[in-house]
Amino acid sequence: MLLNSTRCGLLATALLVSLMPAIPALGQTSSGAKWTVPEIFGSAAVSNEPPSDSSWSPDGSRYTYRSKSEGLISVDAASGKREVLIPERKLEPASRREVNEKDKDHRARYSQSPYFWSPDSKQMLLDEDGTLWLYTLADGSMRQIGDSGQGSGDDPKFSPDGKRISYLHQHNLYVVEPGQPQPVALTHTSDPALLNGEVDWVYLEELKVRTNYAWAPDSAHLAYVQMNETAVPEYPLVDWIPTHATLDMQRYPQPGDPNPVVRLGVVAATGGETRWIDLPIRAGDDYIPRLGWVDAQTVWAETLARDHKHLDLYFADIATGQMKKVLAQADAKFFNDSYDINFYAPGSFLLTSWSDGHTHLYRYSYDPAHPLAAEARLEGELEHGDYEVIEVLSVDPGAKTVYYASTEVAAGAGDPREQQIWAVGLDGTGKHPVTTAPGSHRAAFADGHGSYTDMASTSATPPTLSLCMIGGECRTIWRGTMMPGHVQNPAIMLTLKAADGVTTLYASLILPQGSTGAASVPLINNPYGGPGTATVVDRWGGATHQFDELLAEHGFAVLHVDNRGMGLRGRTFEQAAYRDFGRVQLADQLAAIDQVLAKYPQLDAKRLGWWGWSWGGSFTLNALTHSDRFRAGVSVAPVTDMRNYDSIYTERYLGLPAENVQVYDDAAVLPTANKLKAHLLLVHGTGDDNVHLENTIQYVQKLIDAQIPYDLQLYPRKTHSIAGPEARTHLYTRIVRQFEMYLKPQPAM
Q: Is 649 in the same domain as 732?
């Protein structure tokens, strides 16, 4: 997860803007240049982003990443030598297809890789916005893959033996042999509601599904999920920019609606009939979040019950269709969204679970000669403590070691503000840190080759990318820099108490430099508040922190607080959001604000603002109507009634609306819109396929009914991210103006 007015309203907004004081000129000060919104979010800032789309070659010899200005960069693992592998000019012919705003947004938000290595590390498959090109390293040749008349493909993969390439096109699964003119269609449906191996929107967004098909290890078969969306309701996304408006109907299940009907099939790589695996799931209700292969004759699949309280693992024989549930997991409230399973060697797999109260690694075994003979056997919890395992990064069966990201900072003790890389033996012995420098570390391992990269930063130091040897030295291959002329205003890290007076909360506060005096500084609260994430972290904040600095330069203090119900603090902390999307979160934020006001007397309790995005946008509307302490707010892309949001996310926390009417009523901000006292700016992208525009429109109607004025800012075609330098510059300029207008003393007219 987590944006009409009447003519009078529009005229009022126009008059309001005309009366707004101009943002003060941003000149030089003794402490350095002041930030500007275009500098933070404009084209120059975007072009100065860190390396992206990185990958290791399968043989571990090269680390590659994409540079917007140079092309595809290769770094030699042994020497650290950097070279341009594919120059940008050569990639340009493969990048000319026009991509709409939604596709562009999805590829960015869901980290869809633009290239893939062949198993022998001699070729690369380039996915340029869905058009596939095969690049050969030896001679630098590049040619399009697939039927030239067919066009593009998505989710491409090399077969394990490297002889074939699979991809999706027009909701069907294809396989092509490089050098052959025609691809082979493995599925043959023409109904646009049937997706073969393709991931629909709700699985992509809420189950973190990035692919719905997998090659068998012997390259003879593919397993795939077919999604039937026929019964899933449609939502209209309108593009009003053309003279004749266009309409895109999106399949989008809301709470209580039919979900996609899913089934698991297996098909030969050469084509033929699909064999369907009869998984015991309820059609239109339950989910298949992950699938894969145990061995060349056995597929595995996870099933998740619609109530999010039962997560099962099945093995199935593709020849006989015989199937067995090998692992059953249950939770009294809900699972976090850790569905990944790692089959790292015959007879063994790893998964993460918060069954002991924190997310940790568990190893299971089965008989590799007879996978369906018995249930999987728990061999043990590999590590334990008051911290969270964030993800498995690599498993090295030869070294009998698993590498993972964690919030553990010392033996058994965690700090959700940090992310470190750790290693532990597959037998649970020899746990040790791989990284130790304070802050945040994001690593990518060359599986089985002893190398990894470390992108490290703190809230005060820009990221550096280092090429490292396990147990050896690290060599910096890229270093971020401060924007020239700027002196950073670091955030103050705070430890506060929740509304229960017991639970620790983490917060960060940035103050205007030199701010003193009683009640002289307005305070803007900017929480996210929703489950599954933490925002108060010791990591380079980039544009987010720079915008906080800009607000501080304008005389505002900015506060971020992670309340109960958010992530990376264990099961009890996050499950505070169970059947509660507002009460406990707001109580914690108000308690935190009181503590900060008491500690910093220069903060003015009578000039408080609040702003947020997505869940944070909903939270803003909750706060501005359940408390009269806030003078102004900005709500970007809010859900105003959780009945409007999608089934998977919403039901995980709130259950079915028919069974939990009061829970949904309490989570909605529509019923309390008539209690709004603050000056509100609502913001939404008209092409938002995540939080639909209907949420803001419904809220606007409630404000009109209550005769409450409001400001509305729409971004045509923009999705939930409201991405792009022009839109971001406009949006953040508008946010500054909102708080300048209503939290600062205004000159006499």
A: yes
